[in-house]
Amino acid sequence: MWRFLFGVLLLLSSCTLFSPSTLIVRNDSDYDIEVKYSRGLKSESFIENGKGDYTEVYPGDMSVIVEIKEIGFSRREKLSVKSMENLTYSFSLKE
Predict the structure, then answer these.
(1) Do 27 and 48 touch, CB atoms closer than 8 A?
(2) Taking Cα atoms as reference points, which of 59, 46, 54 lies closest to residue 17?
(3) Rg of the chain's alpha carbons, rounded to an integer?
């Protein structure tokens, strides 16, 4: 009986603790950007100006690196992702 209860408890906790969250990246800048993720199902994505993209990430601390190659711009942002959270990161750089 204890094994069964332990198994059910383990199953329930693993479903909630390790459920991926959604990170939405919006590009509100005048440039196309390249985004690199330190953790997630994607390692990088290219987002045109005025558009967005998403990836699934796991809970914890992560870094998002935004680069604009045409002007030599790079910015690193640290994000903290909670379990089963939809997180939006908006990037804006105007000329």
Answers:
(1) yes
(2) 59
(3) 17
pTM exceeds cut of 0.90: no
Q: Dump pLDDT digits (tens) for 8-63.
A: 666 655 554 557 889 999 999 999 999 999 988 889 999 999 999 999 988 889 99
* Number of helices (H), then strands (E), in the chain: 1, 7
Alpha-carbon distances of 27 from 32, 53, 60, rounded to whole Å: 8, 9, 23
DSSP 53-81: EEEEE-SEEEEEEEEETTTTEEEEEEEEE
Tokens 């939006």 correspond to 88
Give tens-digit pLDDT for 70-89: 999 999 999 998 888 889 99
